[in-house]
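WP5 quarterly update. Target: Cytochrome c oxidase assembly protein COX11. Source organism: Coprinopsis marcescibilis. Length: 277 aa.
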Amino acid sequence: MSFLRPLSRSTPLQSWLRSPCLLLPGIPRQTWYSTAPKPPGNGGKRAADGFKTREQVHRDRNRSLLMYSSAVILVAVGASYAAVPLYRMFCAATGFAGTPKVGTGRFEAERLVPVESARRIKVHFNADKSEQLPWLFTPQQKFVSVLPGESSLAFYTAKNNSSQDIIGIATYNVTPDRVAPYFSKVECFCFEEQKLLAGEEVDMPLLFFIDKDILDDPSCRNVDDVVLSYTFFRARRNKFGHLEPDASEAAVQTSLGFDKFEHARPASSAPDVPKAS
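Structure tokens (predicted):
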């Protein structure tokens, strides 16, 4: 009899939802949750229901990790190559430790107007060279007097007294240090390759001005004299292929005016830390 028929474990609603012929309008079939087991050995392809297999998830994660790691390595290598040029750009842009600013498009034309009511500042020129460089390096003028905002042109002379071609590179600094942020050079020969043939003599121009904002700085109100110093070194190639002064680190730091600042000692000269017993 029909009333003795055993009850089904699934309700009619559940059986209807599991029907393979059921199609709901506007809902893709692959978005439904399927309780059927996935066929094994799919070869790494996407499952029929639109979900990723565990192998695919791990493969995507490993690929993302590899891409991020490669990007970090490339950035680190690029930063190591650009460390020295970026440091020089930072010093030239901020006037750090007596490094004059190199002005190109930073100052508008209306700012390069002399302040006639201000007193003149006497700029003295100094020239030094390394003992390893057989050049004669001298300024053509001892000093010039300029007004804040007034551009001025000066010249240095360099002569190669040796019998071979030599490449030199120059560093510079300004004293007193508090004037450096306002001392801007439009054109100069510093930190650039200067190749002189045997016995050649050249004139090196320098176009500079003192920013009139110096008049608003209380620490510079009593400054009447400024010294611009250049030091020429014989150039050499470092391990990155960049030109650098062929001199000791102490000599280069002194030419830049950094010898007045405290620097951390190199790791090789640092004292050994006693180990805990």
